[in-house]
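hi! just following up on the protien thing from before. the input was this:
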Amino acid sequence: MNETKKTMIFGAVALALLLLAFVTTPSKVTPDAFLDQGEAFFPDFQDPNSATSLEVISYNEETGEAVPFKVVFEEGKWRIPSHYDYPADGKERLAKTAAGVIGIKKDDFRSDNVADHEACGVIDPLDETSTALSGRGQRVTIKGANDQILADFIIGKPVEGREGFRFVRVPEQKRVYACRVDLDLSTKFSDWIEADLLKVEKDDITEITLKDYSINERSGIVNQRDEVVLDKNGSTWAINRLPAGKEVNASKANELAKNLDELKIVGVRPKPEGITQSLKKTEEGIEISQSDYLSLRSKGYFFSRDGSLLSNEGELQARTSKGIVYTLRFGEVAYGSGFDVSAGSDGLSTAQGGAAENRYLFITAYFDDNTFQEPKEPANTDFLTKADSLWSDGDRANKALYDAHETWRQKVESGQQIAQDLSERFSGWYYVISDESFKKLRLQRSDLLKDKSS
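and the predicted 3d structure came back as:
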């Protein structure tokens, strides 16, 4: 056999062995469980700004109840249905949350066994067929226009040994994934509302009056214990009835103004419609029904013999340089925490035994027409139809009077509009503030004084 034939035989054998190896080598098999690894849960949800509602449902293991929190955009306004449709400051926060939801991928498949759901913390908090009190996750549902579901998850427990990962499941599906979750799922009422309650700047506050009184709830007779008036001129505070050897503690007075500026609420309750409509018109001359009166009474508010609205823990008035006068009436103490405080039922427990003390707060605001003295009006406005070069001395005098009067008019109209907006804002709600906030505002005369400097 010559060399050429040998070479051909060896080549044929090598080719045959190569083909045999190719045929007999097992193909790479991907288990069905891992086929969707790395995919988005809801691939059609791409635009976070398309979200118009967010619902987060948690589970209270102590009471065995699902706790809902929802923010929706309806009729051009953001509202919180779980809190009596209170106005929400939700657009930016919802878009941020939606963007975080879009970023959740099916990073690692972990289980498709229902028995593992409790250990992973992905039992649906709304699942009434499950008897488990533990192991329930947070259900997060985002919807868009026409109530279309954009995303719907159950966020479970953290994945041990993998920082930033949580167990995640889609409702009605068995499969559980370990996913990187970068999501701020705050269900705190205070995180979703306008933080600036009074819309007042501390430097604009020119006068603060603290009214310390008690009221006989049966007779309506008021026992006025003290009335502290702090008046600010520039940066200097003065106080009425200053005792000998004492002076105003300016830092305490400034701190009080700052606490008004930064006042935050922890909950709300709706006022009856009759009270709301009366307050939208004016604080004076309120006409309410017997049921409205009982609502006020339950929150610690009463009418005196002369028809003035009073509160069982006194009140605070703050006046601003823009002519706005705020009245904060401190009502009944309310015990509770969490959802019981922020929304709960219509009325917190006023009996001891709750987790924390809070306080009802009734706020009104009006514009004081006497804030800005009306200047003299011009004798005429003939100068408006003349060129400047043709003005007489009288025209120039009238122009100066006209400008001063216009400035006054604009200040008054601005103040009236601010007061109207605030009345619309406050009229529908009893607010709930923390005991800490209450104590920062409910000061005594002695709290605002110090020994006079030598």
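The two ends are 127 Å apart (CA to CA).
Residues 202-451 form one domain.
cheers
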